[in-house]
Design goal:
The protein has about 425 residues and is an alpha/beta fold. It has helices spanning about 60-65, 75-95, 110-115, 130-135, 150-155, 175-185, 200-205, 225-230, 265-275, 290-310, 320-330, 360-370, 380-390, and strands at about 10-20, 40-45, 50-55, 100-105, 120-125, 140-145, 160-170, 190-200, 220, 235-245, 250-255, 315, 340, 360, 370-375, 395-400, 405. It folds into two domains: about 70-280, 3-Layer(aba) Sandwich (Rossmann fold); about 290-405, Rossmann fold, CATH 3.40.50. Helix 5 (about 150-155) runs parallel beside helix 6.
Amino acid sequence: MSCRHCSAPLGLELIDLGSSPPSNAYLTPEMLFAPEKTYPLRIMVCEKCWLVQTLDFTHADELFSSEYAYFSSFSTTWLEHAERYVAEMVERFRLNSASHVVEIASNDGYLLQYVKARGIPCTGIEPTASTARAARQKGVDTVEAFFGAEFASRLAAEGRQADLMAANNVLAHVPDINGFLVGFTNLLKPDGAATFEFPHLLRLLAENQFDTIYHEHFSYLSLTAVEEIFKANGLAVFDVEEIATHGGSLRVFAQRAASGRRPVSARVAALLARESEAGLSTAKGYHGLQSRAEKVKDDFVSFLIDAKRRGRRVAGYGAAAKGNTLLNFAGIRRDLISYVVDRNPAKQGKFLPGSRIPILSEEVLYRDAPDYVIILPWNLKAEVMQQLRHAGISEARYVTAVPELEISDPGGA
């Protein structure tokens, strides 16, 4: 297979996580009587442009169905992040009632609700019917579509060019990364700006965040690769920030290469230099993740088997995509984790893909008071532990498996 950006042949493997179903393909009770479709989860590195990417075995419309069950608004931490983002961008780019903000993959209106509240016109572009419906219920104007070059040209022709375009945690999700980025060039006003947030490949490698790899993530992004891909599609990077979300992400600022006039921040060159020092422009920089992931798997399985032998009650918290990667890579089933709870009603009553562990409401966890709670979205560990302590789960021991197995003392300390 060839690179989805530059078409160079792919020969360098980063990691092979076996085969699993898509991480957000939650099962209904009726679906338990049918086979599941699984796909290889193998990640390759392009040695020409250094884009890290999945080998393609599936299509976006299979991964992002009309009943896609990830709703951004169920994380308090993420809502706070979105509200801060809006405040910062309004100030930085002097947005007002004459401006137009467009968010790509706007989900359930989690971010644009804060733009709308400031009286700034905004439009969400969201391909999944379930989340688009939730956004409209918040009063957020939402177009239900996959974003790309042709769609962006159509919006621009309708007079809907953007002063600011936001793309939070979507750049990694698009199979046609070139067509997607040309869409930004087409829709931005000549002096407009776009921001892209995505998990930083440097952190993934350094901190063994292999569970952030799943089929819905077609790409794993460094600034080194992003700058090159942007340039090829009419965009120019002018700033970058490192942010804490999703275990360590980048917020990249871009403008139209042909008309943007913002100066390039020194932070761009500084981060590119750090990535170079870490070896992200050499094959050697991508060695070792496979063995580190297998150690996590072995330690996690050993812990769960030991807990079962000792008669301990084990439950999970958070029906997260990253958790599904871990559970399927490790071959975990409900004999080792009885159930997982989640705050999202759209997931409750369903089953995790592959492992088929039932997803229940939080009230079940409060009633059962298990001995161990596995926090699958480890990036939200502090938020989850605080929430569960306030709800009375004070004697359980909290467990995270990534980047290495960690078990709290009784009481959560």
